[in-house]
Amino acid sequence: MPALLDDVRFAFQPLFNLHTGGVVAVEALARPHDGNVQDLLRMAFRAGYLANTDVALACRAIRHAADHGLGVPLHVNLLAMTIADKPEFMAPLYGALRETGRTPADLVLEVGTPYSRAPRRLLVKGIDRLREDGFKIALDGVGEGDTPLSLLTEVQPDMVKLDREVVVALPSDPARYALVQALQHVCEHIGSLIVAEGVETEAELGALRRLGVRLAQGNLLATAQRRPKVDATISAVLSEVSDPEAVTKTMTGPLRRNSGPRVTDFLHPATTLPESATSEDVREVLANQPTVTGVVLVDDEGRPLWTVDRNRFLLGVTGPFGHALHAKREAARLADKPKLIGADSSALDLLDVVAHANRERTNDDLVVVDDDDRCLGVVRVADVVRGVAEMKVEQAAALSPLTRLPGSDSIAREVDRRIMGGDLFAVGWLDVDAFKRVNDSAGFAAGDDLIRAIGRSLTEGAATYPGVQVGHVGGDDFLVVAGLNEIVPFAAAVLDSPFEAEGRGVTLSLATLICAAGTVGSYREVSRLLAPLKEHAKSLRGTSWVLGRPGSDHVDVLRGGPHLAVS
């Protein structure tokens, strides 16, 4: 086996943040001279040296990466069977880290298939041991391999790598799209990030962006190369896919709440040095990594103590006597106290921190920390400003110009979120009776005023009930999503309000569908089930309100007079 490993070389493929366009990590991919790495591992398995060979490949990946001075985390691959094997097999991995001056925190271990051959208890125990030592964990091959879903919730990995076979089907297969929506929902609950592998086309990239997937790698973004491209950017590729919604118009919307991006959506790997680093240490880092905007000085636990801004530091050390004064002295003399922000903060929270900073530091990177105040990375203010601006533009474009209420996409996201969460909730469809007659008799300006008045009534009512979301989906049609304890008082208040057009009273019709866990599967199904209920409501006299449930033909009439003949 050692002789075969001598012929293995490595290529490095970047992982990109789809919000910032920058590289956040690099994966080391083994490239044997003959065949592929799976062939090599099969030979090792037959010879009884699988774990040794697997770990040896990971060690070689670490040493090859050290030759290129990576400033971002390195992803290396290990089989689930190896991690479930004897702990002593992992000892060379720690040796390779010591030899190259890296720490477990610099490494993401991608746990690969097959999972079924690894004893579950030993696999979980092995992963827990590695995480306790500081390694980050990714589960690879999710979606097409034999990854048990319960393993995701038990391990709660830092990353979940979406298999290429799932990614390729996203633009054209609604079922695969729904699968990733469900996976995204699970990952949000367990604190994992999805990484899409093998992105090859703009259609795939567009579908991923619509789903809210933040990290991706693939030949469309950057090919695997012998020399890692840590300074690469995919801003041009992202700008070409400027309308991710256009790629998947027939799909349901993203699962995530439309509450704006989080700071972690804009995370860059932090360039760190120990708090005892000298100014010369910092200068060497900045000289070798021209895209780095600053250095974070951390303690032994990885907690940020100081930040060194690139521009202010270079001004300090490049003067006539700067090098002589500072080179061998601690870099903290030219540093500032870090601006910290928690990983759960929103982008708007970050802008609030910046707004209260000293004027000369408004463009400094912010250091993102976890619950134990350890450095997770840095965020650049310019990225967040651009992201928030894009979000506001998208939100404004999605609002009805007449009522300023969100459209059907927003309601679709909320319905799908509640379905995935197993909630008990109600969806209501409200409209004006004989609205065309209102326009024809009172004029379209009066019709617009009526729609605005209904929109204001819905908005004011929703402000009273935090679990209610309303939308204007076109013409005189409005949608309402609410909890079961909120729909009755909210709807009653709206239906009790008098509405008129040029002095002529108008009536409303409301159809409501009560959705229990497991009774509906999608927003599209909800809309289909609401249609006959709406027809029933329209057939009643005066302002009407009917209520139904999936799987039942029974309709409760809560308001409305006797049936009229329907023409």
CATH superfamily of the largest domain: EAL domain
Q: What CATH architecture of the largest domain do you see? A: Alpha-Beta Barrel
Number of discrete helical segments: 22
**Radius of gyration, taken over Cα atoms and rounded to an integer in Å:** 29 Å
Q: Determine and state the CATH class of the largest domain.
A: Alpha Beta
- Structural class, by secondary structure, is alpha/beta
Number of domains: 3
Strands, count? 23
Protein architecture, described:
The protein is of the alpha/beta class and 567 residues long. The protein folds into three domains: 249 residues, TIM Barrel; 119 residues, CBS-domain, CATH 3.10.580; 160 residues, Reverse transcriptase/Diguanylate cyclase domain (Alpha-Beta Plaits, 2-Layer Sandwich), CATH 3.30.70. Helices cover 41% and strands 21% of the residues. An eight-stranded mixed beta barrel has the order 1-2-3-4-5-6-7-8. Strand 5, helix 7 and strand 6 form a beta-alpha-beta unit. Helix 2 runs antiparallel to helix 3. It is globular. The N and C termini lie far apart (83 Å). About 3% of the residues have low confidence. This is EAL domain-containing protein (Putative c-di-GMP-specific phosphodiesterase class I)/GGDEF domain-containing protein. GO terms for molecular function: cyclic-guanylate-specific phosphodiesterase activity. Pfam families: EAL, GGDEF.
Key features?
single chain; 567 residues; TIM Barrel; CBS-domain; Alpha-Beta Plaits; 3 domains; 8-stranded mixed barrel; 23 strands
Can you summarize this structure?
The chain has 567 residues and is an alpha/beta fold. 41% of the residues lie in helices and 21% in strands. The radius of gyration is 29 Å and the shape is globular.
